[in-house]
Design a protein that fits this description.
- This protein has 428 residues and is α+β, with helices and mostly antiparallel strands.
- The longest helix has 41 residues.
- The chain contains 13 helices and 24 strands.
- It starts with a strand and ends with a helix.
- The strands form eight sheets. Strands 2-9-6-7 form a four-stranded antiparallel β-sheet. It has a four-stranded mixed β-sheet with strand order 4-3-8-5.
- α7 runs antiparallel to α12.
- It is elongated, with a radius of gyration of 27 Å.
Length: 428
């Protein structure tokens, strides 16, 4: 029941446009950027036939697209294309086109192309120079896949489609919640919360509640201040240690640990040998805010991240600046929400020097502006943000669980290790 994938599909088949199509008729156009890492066709764009007929890969309704170039292939890019405009599509020349034969279910073939086992084997079979490696057509002649009857293929595909659909819905919900959070943050950082626990009216509705500041209109009780006026102790650049000291000792926060979210990540942590006196000077505490002094991208220079739930005594590298704020003036959890906002980025951008890499100095960072509501209002704002953040995190955990379930089912069903039955289909 195992056959080469090429026995189930036509590889990069010859394609003839229907004679009924005129040069100005619209057809679907799918560049590599329009397919996701999970194998979905996202942006449904069209172009006149005459503009894409030459220089692009043609395909038809029901075909499966498989990215052949690195790193798109490793990332999972591809799609099962249906609903093409005029039943015709053109796309990136970096797609292999797999057209299922009569005895093959198209969705079954699609799920096989998304299976991590196939992708890993395809990566090993790539040819070409670094950065331009591609999966050769010969791979599909050699790679064997589990090939039950077409009826069983359809049942397998339907089970995986159920999970796929739930994954897509959860991803869409997370994207929606992120947009809601973005709008909430904008309102909280421009209008704040009044004594009734409600968002203040907008400046247009109640101009008497606002005043001008260096960051624009702000509620009258708020203060706009440079960060250096809020410091509990002098700012400190991180510790420099030669590579000979790396590999053991205390965790050292590096640039990659502060770019992922609002909070410092302690995953994939490096370790460095430090003395007790160095750890006292260059150590971290919960509530510290770390700033990146340089970055390859403009937005990264001056980016801030909060130390939270410190697992053990840790230090930080020389490209990072540590700030400790007076918590009787500003809560670290509020400060990081503001410092990661678009308002703060607009302010810090004027300090960024862009040469080979983007960079800011310690003195620049101390001049960054920060909004300071009354402490009670800061706490209320943080509670609203954390509520939104918790909902998103819960959905992300659910998404992770669904993806693990799908990966496990793919390993079982696409290899024939577990045979699908109507009873199993109903259970799923």
């Amino acid at each position: 029941m195992f056959r080469s994938l090429s026995e189930l599909v036509e590889l990069n088949p010859n394609f003839q446009c229907p004679n009924t199509l005129e040069p100005n008729d619209l057809v679907s156009f799918i560049p590599m950027g329009d397919v996701s890492d999970s194998g979905h066709w996202m942006t449904k764009r069209t172009k006149p036939l005459k503009s894409v007929r030459q220089g692009f890969t043609p395909f038809a309704n029901g075909d499966v697209l498989f990215a052949k170039i690195t790193p798109c292939m490793e990332n999972g890019k591809g799609a099962h294309v249906v609903g093409l405009a005029n039943a015709v599509g053109f796309g990136s020349t970096e797609f292999h086109v797999l057209r299922p034969k009569q005895e093959a279910d198209a969705r079954f073939i699609f799920h096989h192309t998304q299976h991590r086992e196939l992708r890993s084997a395809a990566e090993a079979a790539m040819t070409g120079s670094a950065g331009q490696k591609r999966v050769p057509t010969e791979f599909f002649h050699k790679w064997k896949v589990y090939s039950p009857s077409k009826e069983e293929q359809s049942r397998i595909a339907q089970i995986l489609d159920i999970l796929d659909s739930q994954i897509q819905k959860t991803e869409a919900l997370i994207a929606k919640l992120e947009k809601i959070k973005e709008g909430l943050l904008h309102d909280l950082l421009t209008r704040g919360i009044d004594h009734n626990g409600q968002l203040r009216p907008t400046p247009d509705q109640a101009p008497e509640l606002y005043r001008e500041s260096a960051l624009g209109l702000i509620p009258k009780k708020w203060v706009c201040s440079e960060i250096e006026n809020l410091l509990d102790c002098p700012s400190r650049s991180g510790l420099y240690k030669p590579s000979a000291f790396h590999g053991y000792g205390a965790p050292m926060i590096q640039m990659g640990n502060i770019f992922s979210s609002e909070f410092v990540s302690f995953e994939k942590i490096s370790r460095v040998s430090v003395t007790p006196s160095e750890l006292e000077i260059f150590g971290l505490e919960n509530g510290d805010i770390l700033f990146a002094r340089r970055s390859l991208v403009l937005e990264g220079a001056g980016k801030a991240s909060l130390v939270k739930d410190l697992p053990e005594p840790s230090t930080f590298e020389s490209s990072i600046v540590r700030l400790r704020l007076r918590q009787d003036a500003i809560l670290p959890s509020f400060a990081i929400v503001f410092l990661q906002s678009s308002f703060s980025y607009s302010d810090r951008r004027k300090y960024i020097r862009q040469v080979a890499v983007s960079g800011v100095s310690s003195s620049d960072i101390r001049q960054f502006l920060c909004l300071i509501p009354p402490l009670e209002e800061q706490q209320t704002i943080i509670s609203r943000v954390e509520s939104s953040r918790s909902r998103i995190e819960a959905e992300r955990k659910a998404l992770g669980k669904l993806k693990k379930q799908k990966a496990g089912l793919m390993d079982d069903l696409l290899t024939g290790r577990v045979r699908v039955t109507p009873l199993m289909k109903d259970a799923v």
